Amino acid sequence: MEIVRIVLLCVAAAMIAMALRTQRPEMAAMVAMAAGLVALMMSLGAVSSVVGAFSQLSERAGLSGESVSLMLRACGISLLCEFASGLCQDAGEGALAQRIEFGGRVALLAMSVPLLVSLSERVIEWLPA
Length: 129
Prior knowledge:
Helix 1 (2-21) runs antiparallel to helix 2 (25-61) and helix 3 (65-90) packs antiparallel against helix 4. 8% of the residues are buried. Helix content is 90%, strand content 0%. The termini are far apart. The chain has helices spanning 2-21, 25-61, 65-90, 94-126. By secondary structure, the protein is an all-alpha fold. The longest helix is centred in the middle third of the chain and has 37 residues, at 25-61.
């Protein structure tokens, strides 16, 4: 039930930030960012169990360790970029948030190149000569 605590923390922080925004907008942004970081720290405990379960499932499915590593890194990059983008949005830096999102997409695309090359090689092998 960690999610309930995270939701309550974020809702309380949002209410505090809303109250502060008229008088001290910089403090409102700080409250929102601090709550976001605490929520992230609270969520990290579940990450290890997810990684363990994902590894067990991939072993049963017969996936290679490299493929599993690639998928886990892609998930991590996606989550990290989404979190950082949200922090930038909270701080009123929409342009920086967009740059983070773009950088994340480029990183994911770059990570997928070896997988795409491997896939295309397999398809070429199946084609008649």
